[in-house]
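Hello again, I could really use a second opinion on something today. I've dropped the whole record in just underneath, so have a look.
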Amino acid sequence: MAEEQNIGVVQRGYEAFGRGDIESLLALLDETITWSTPGPADLPMAGNRRGRAGVAEFFQTLVATVDVLRFEPKQFVAQGDVVVVVGGDTSRVKATGASVEFEWVHVFTLRDGKIVAFKEYGDVSALVAEVRSAQAAA
């Protein structure tokens, strides 16, 4: 039953993101969450963040950098306190207007009904190339 509850927490987070309701998403996070997204230092969304304020900054950076056109969590797998989600998205880089497809894996760790850790895995090379081309043109 705990695994189903953990999947439910993660699904509520994705639903909140889909509505643009970042406050509701942040409420699902533990105060001390660690949040890790892939990419080099010149990709604004990449890196490690701590706490709800750090995650809020991640989402501010995300919406300043891209328009998410499609965001699709496809498969949820839970074992104990870990939920793994496989999905994909399409985003338009605001600086260039180019759309980028991205397949990802999200790994959530939960404790007492709150998300305490998030780690994203995926090949961000297309997004990095677009961001760098915009930086070079500036």
